[in-house]
Amino acid sequence: MRYRELGRSGLSVSEIGYGAWGIGEGAWVGATEDESVRALHRAVDLGVNLIDTARGYGESERIVGRVVRERAAAGDEILVATKVPPGNGTWPAPAGVTAEEAFSGEHIRASLETSLRASGLDHFDVLQFHVWWDEWVGRGDWLETVADLKQQGKIRLFGVSINDHETDNSLALVRSGVVDTVQVIYNIFEQTPAESLLPACQEHGVGVIVRVALDEGGLTGAVTAGTTFPEGDFRNRYFRGDRPAQVEQRVRAIVDDLGIAPDAIAETALRYVLSAPAVSTVIPGMRSVRNVERNTAVSDGTPLTDEQLAILAKHRWQRNFYAS
């Protein structure tokens, strides 16, 4: 496993982190706690030292906390990032919502205490707002609260999870100098962050945590025309209608243009993200030991070539399957 600096924080994080949404036994159907625990332990064995969870991920914080405490007893230090949901329950944050409505100091503290109890941890390494709107810079009492929580030792770093496909709705925050990390959707289809956000993060020393690098499974080759998901799984909505067929066609075009094997698309998608120097870590969801072993193997120092990156630049696909 290779490691990168998490912005100006002084912390080094594994290139491949662990996205723990899917193990929460909520929006993603099919996870079992026993397999999730095995997968988490295997990830740590293979060098993963950052796990990303959230208050809104069902049982995820509890399961993550269990494994992190077990590994701490064995001398392993694992960094844990969690998220505070918006106090008004609105996802993503729309224009016009005030900072006080979404992230009042009182709400931030209450959510953090709930997360600490659920996980059994005494602090989180990164506390992120689960939605963001740039109009909140300089407004509300969230920044004062974050500073106080850092002083108390309950959090080490402050970050935000940028609204789905609203990359530039974070530039004011990044340039303000008050945020330590941003979490953003960045993948072969969603290339917008490379235009302004990633350069801004490099300039201001902000760590970049990349989510949805595999497009919720679309960039694994497993989503094809006719693909269905278990009842209650959020992917039924994300990949509804003819979207699986669209994804299959797009992935086939990438495979053909690069001249790679169809089962190499997931590896290629992760290497694409890691080809950006501003990226600190990528956090694919991993619900099985097999997925952990396949994804962590990508951190081998083998970048995509300039020719491959030039080909992938042509496969940008602007759309928002979350919102429509």
Jot down its keywords.
single chain; 324 residues; alpha/beta; two-stranded antiparallel ribbon; 12 helices; 36% helix; globular
Give your account of this protein's structure:
It is a single chain. The protein is of the alpha/beta class and 324 residues long. The chain has 12 helices and 10 strands. The chain has an 8-stranded parallel sheet with strand order 3-4-5-6-7-8-9-10, with helices on one face. A two-stranded antiparallel ribbon has the order 1-2. The termini are far apart. The relative contact order is 0.15.
Q: Helix and strand string, N-terminal first?
A: EEEHEHEHHEHEHEHEHHHEHH
Give the helix tally: 12
Q: Provide the structure class.
A: alpha/beta
Give the rounded overall mean pLDDT. 96
Distance between the termini: 38 Å
Which outline best applies? globular
Beta-strand fraction estimate: 5-15%
Parts with pLDDT < 50 across at least 5 consecutive residues: none
Query: Total number of β-strand segments?
Result: 10
Determine the fraction of residues in helical runs and give it as a percent range. 25-40%
Order of strands across the widest beta sheet?
3-4-5-6-7-8-9-10
